[in-house]
Amino acid sequence: PALHGAELAVSGVAKAFGGNQALRDVSITARPGRVTALIGPNGSGKTTMLNMICGFYRTDAGRITVGGTQLQRLPAHHVARAGVARTFQTPNLPEGVSVLEAVASGRCSTARASLLDAVLRLPRFRRVRDADIAEALRVLELVGMTHLRDAEAVSLPLGMRRLLEVARALVTRPSVLLLDEAASGLDEDEVDRLAELIRRIRDAGGTVLLVEHNFRLILALADEIFVLAHGQVIASGPPEVIERDPRVLSEYLGV
Ligand code: ADP
After folding, report:
1. In 46-93, where do the E strands start and end?
2. Closest ligand 1 atom to 50 CA
3. Which atom of ligand 1 is nearest to the CA of 20?
4. Of these four, 69, 73, 156, 179, which has the most CB atoms within 10 Å of its CB?
5. Where do the structural domains in the chain lie, given as residue ranges?
6. Substitution site in 15, 21, 38, 48 for ligand 1 pocket (most atoms within 8 Å of beta carbon)
7. What is the CA radius of gyration of the chain?
8. DSSP annotation of 148
């Protein structure tokens, strides 16, 4: 399916927790048809940035827009309705649910999500409709998991559950797709499959923002990289530039 990605623009965002300034004056842009990556060492503010975009936390300063619509004052379920979909590092699916049902319910959970649903990821399996099933089948095709449609979702290997997470986000036809550490814990083949899927989403016109530790994956996949350190963007640019930036090498890779 063609994805209608929208531009995500984060501009001058700041966030403190007590006296701890987690983000200061952070500006990031993610465009349709491009893979944008947010990287940085532990504690640099990546998760906080994702949580700000999703509306889990309020900004202290700055603007966050998707396709020109301001998000920074909206609660999480309104952000989801504005087309921002997010995967979580730990796929969380109940037992006894098939792959197809899990994908089809991805749409319902967004349509009906409250803040609590968004945080706890409570699926709404009872409300799956035929239209959702048809869309879920299309997304499973894109993700290359059609043959697994009747398999139990929780029983799949981690790599497949991660792809399933992406499928559940895609079925909402997001204007922005946020991937939180989607490659962590995956073996090389699984990372390759994930990378292939992300490329397909990009080529279909999606806007993808990856928050990722796997530096090699980022270099191979991202069109544009933003590097966070101590809550600030210390470098941004294409992979060829980032991999040679001395500040990035010392801050991020510790060399
Ligand atoms: P990363 O995802 O890059 O590892 P985080 O965004 O998790 O970094 O953390 C950035 C900083 O913000 C850290 O100093 C962390 O302790 C702090 N922080 C993040 N979330 C909270 C929170 N809910 N309450 C207090 N401090 C937090």
Report:
1. 61-66, 69-70, 84-87
2. 6
3. 14
4. 179
5. 8-251
6. 48
7. 18
8. G
- Ligand 1 atom nearest to 49, measured from its CA: 6
> Would the ipTM clear 0.95, i.e. be above it?
yes
Task: Please give the distance, rounded to the nearest whole angstrom, from the Cα atom of residue 22 to the centre of ligand 1.
Answer: 6
Rounded Cα distance between 44 and 109, Å, is 31
Measured CA to CA in angstroms, residue 167 lies from 83, 228, 230 at distances of: 15, 28, 33
Q: Would you give the DSSP letter of residue 152?
A: B
- Mind listing the pLDDT tens digit for each residue in 124-153? 444 556 778 888 999 999 889 999 999 999
CA of 44 to the centre of ligand 1 (A): 8
C-alpha pair distances (Å), 137 with each of 92, 110, 144, 163, 170: 21, 18, 10, 14, 12
Summary mean pLDDT of the chain? 87
Beta strands in 18-119 (DSSP E): 20-30, 34-39, 61-66, 69-70, 84-87
Q: Please provide the CATH number assigned to the domain covering 8-251.
A: 3.40.50.300
Between strands 8-17 and 61-66, the pairing is: antiparallel
Residues in the chain: 255
13-54: per-residue pLDDT in tens? Answer: 999 999 999 999 999 999 999 999 999 988 999 999 999 999
Query: pLDDT confidence of 59, banded at 50, 70, 90?
Result: very high
Residues with CB under 6 A from ligand 1: 17, 20, 22, 40, 42-48
- What does pTM read for this prediction? 0.88
Rounded distance, CA 10 to CA 53, Å?
8
